[in-house]
UniProtKB/TrEMBL annotation:
Superkingdom, natural source: Bacteria
The organism's taxonomic lineage, starting at the top: Bacteria, Bacillati, Actinomycetota, Actinomycetes, Micrococcales
Pfam entry (one): DUF501
Name the UniProt record assigns to this protein: DUF501 domain-containing protein
Amino acid sequence: MRAQLGRDMRGVVSIARRCGCGRPAVVRTAPRLEDGTPFPTSLYLTLPWLTLELSRVEGTGRMAELTERIAQEPELAAAYRRAHERYLARRAEIGEAEEVAHVSAGGMPTRVKCLHALAGQALAEGPGVNPIADEVLAGIEGAAPELVCRCEETEEER
Ligand SMILES: [Zn+2]
């Protein structure tokens, strides 16, 4: 993880998903760091190639489009809210941080603000949990339905 992020990852509880090559892809982290700082993103994407791909998607204006769709499609909105509630419930299993008790991640339940956080949930929990992340991941080569390793490709680009 240090090699992936360029720093130590704090508060890691477990590896929630691995890349095809076995490197950590999503880590589950405690909602409060050792120094007491609340850390609401409890499913944290660490995989460089996928982080890069999601940043590219974020750069296209896709998040505003998806947020608009949540506002207009009640079924999508309901599924996205369920993803939010599941996020909070799963996080409560590993700890509490009252300052962020109702804050999940990525803009849930009504907005799309960080695809990395949403993808972290989808990759850790499997398809059908977070419809927005499922849709975005489906458009990224090697990200779904299985996580295929593209680590070497990312290293070449550096
Ligand atoms: Zn890999």
